[in-house]
Amino acid sequence: MIKGIGIDIIDMQRIKQSIKRNPRFVQRILTEKEQERYFQLSERRQVEYLAGRFAAKEAFAKSIGTGIGELGFQDIEILSESSGAPTLKARGYEDFSIWVSISHSSDHAVAQVVLEE
Question: I need a labelling partner for 20 at 20 to 30 A (CA). Which of 2, 10, 66, 115 fits?
Fold first, then answer.
């Protein structure tokens, strides 16, 4: 049974500016495992990757009905399967199926999450 859905869109320029303004922004948003992948990417792909993860974490928080706050960015992790498909895990939601989709354009990243019990 579907327990919640969430969607979020983020402007790539906003993420790029946040990275430049605050060097710790990446560490605040991405878990250690996510950061491992982030630092392997080109600068352009880093912005896309971080924006996509930011949007997906916000979308997950919306799917549980709280927004970021009850859970922080570090409590939500989005890694990729060998096929490249994203998978989302969140502290306290291990018994749920969580479906996530992330997409990018040149200007925006968007993510949608479906929380299933």
Answer: 66
